[in-house]
Amino acid sequence: MGRMLLQEAANYAIETYILESDPDCPSARLCHHFIQGDIRNYEDVLAFGQNLDVLTIEIEAVNIEALEVLEASGKTVVPKPAVLKIIKNKILQKEHYRNHQIPSPAFKTTYSIAELKGESDFLPAVHKIAEGGYDGRGVQILKHPSDFEKGFDTASVLEKMVDVQTEIAVMVAIDLNGKLVLYPAVEMIFDPYLNLLDYQLCPVNLPEKTRWKAEAIAVKVAKSFESPGLFAVEMLVDREGGVWVNETAPRVHNSGHHTIEAHITSQYDMLWRIMLGYPLGSADSISASSLVNLIGDKDHSGNVKYEGISEILATENVYIHLYGKAQTKPGRKMGHITILGRDRIELIMKAKLVKEKVKVISQP
Amino acid sequence: MGRMLLQEAANYAIETYILESDPDCPSARLCHHFIQGDIRNYEDVLAFGQNLDVLTIEIEAVNIEALEVLEASGKTVVPKPAVLKIIKNKILQKEHYRNHQIPSPAFKTTYSIAELKGESDFLPAVHKIAEGGYDGRGVQILKHPSDFEKGFDTASVLEKMVDVQTEIAVMVAIDLNGKLVLYPAVEMIFDPYLNLLDYQLCPVNLPEKTRWKAEAIAVKVAKSFESPGLFAVEMLVDREGGVWVNETAPRVHNSGHHTIEAHITSQYDMLWRIMLGYPLGSADSISASSLVNLIGDKDHSGNVKYEGISEILATENVYIHLYGKAQTKPGRKMGHITILGRDRIELIMKAKLVKEKVKVISQP
Fold first, then answer.
1. For residue B314, is it within any domain?
2. Is A311 a domain residue?
3. Which of A143, A185, B82, B330 is the most exposed place for a label (fewest CB within 10 A)?
4. Which of B3, B278, B282 has the CB atom closest to A10's CB atom?
């Protein structure tokens, strides 16, 4: 995500700084100044931000205390560190939704498996670790009491299972003055095994009323954080048309990759406009789109090799983004492919073709 | 141009190297390896290319001998150095068109002003220095014998003046196997004082027959060089509908900047596809577009300051590209702005607005 933000940064007259522990990370060679350091370390983040004007993040797992000090010293931090504090911890995030009357599945907090075992009446439910989950890790589906052993023996959220019809996301952009635009909703089709996005479609196939409801909720969520930034609001639509907030990412997000080609203003450009104090761009779509994540093959670890790229590039309206990660491992996000098309059938067909042809494996 | 090529490079799993004398150049911080050196120096270019797989250029004024040695040693050089040799020298370029029966204005070669003075019968004409001209420099319009003193006292081309109705350019892409696609023609409106592009429009406002003729000529030109690459063929359309090749740039070109947002495959992505041996992308347009170059104000030199950016970013369908050059000077290309729109009127109006609002000046 940092890499794509830097690709867009080159359109503005700005100097860019990246803090990362891995000097071979995808962003290292696309910025003016690469600073090696741990984003979770107080001293590292503080030192990093000292001479900068504006800071942002691409992952919530950063040292928030340091960002708070930087913000207090007058730096613009997008989103505000207070938002990260809430979102980073799923218990706080769920309480935030409840306190703001934002529809989100009913939940309990648990701190041990022993405690979890007393919640048989609450099943089926989803157990989510409060901190540190990412990309499908830190989430367990608990259907029967026999599943309790799969739960987390630490601070977690136990969430009532929603009878999901569709998973969607709406991205909201809020500028430094509180002005707001929202991107059309996207629909996410998940891989049932990896719990990772299989492919994504825009626009969504939902009744207008449900879309409006989702948009209203997304706006409410984004506003509730009282911060400039991008807010990717992930929602669950149930079989009765009910819309429930699953979680929010206060940053550029996987569900917005397609905006690079398919929308007037990409999420990356939008974030720069916010950070630089420029007017927001239009979030309207130029074309319907689908998006496929390129995920490390489950049987491969090591130096990455991409198969099928040439074949896919021969397909019209297909855009490839490889993230420049040297090493692949099972389930790792290594790139994505955006497809523009006229209708849903074409978009799904091409997404399936991409998934069939493109393989992220390791070199022998 | 290198900068935009690098922005696009980040979508592929490749390692990038840049050779440039200025370590603060726009490309320096967007590549994996910046090598300081003189692109006109034989040793520098040879050493630079030694361990690379594929090389390209963003300006013709490079050391061609070194590129020839690299090519002979098995490197892929796009375009072939032999093409650069022809194009770099306007006399050779004109002879090339003549030898290939490509329509281009009648010409004579001159080597001194004394010699030039014997060509009164050839006026009105355009005098172009054979080597080293760039961005409007090295070109003089000679209408009367009294203008001869403005000519060049060195190897030059004296070209019959065409009664120009419209200046256009057609970009042709040829892959390593000789497959070819062409971008729709663009129309260029020049600033009569600076001899620099004022704004550019796509599509062109020309009869279908004239467009076809121009496309056929552009294909003929591109093929005549017998090399993979991008070929921006600049042509003059006279008042009788005649089409004349003005000159060709065998590389990414100013006349293709709009392809980033307005076409399915940008010229930058197209060149990567060529260099990496991938299939060519579609060159079709997504939207009509206009393009304005951001040029250093004639009264300003020094640390650059951009005025009016915020106002322009509030206009819908406007895309800004600043090249990250620290210093402005009169007539220097500092960035460009692409505008998407429904019709010619809207595109011209917005181009005029950009030119009125955005100023590239120096900091006080």
1. yes
2. yes
3. A143
4. B3
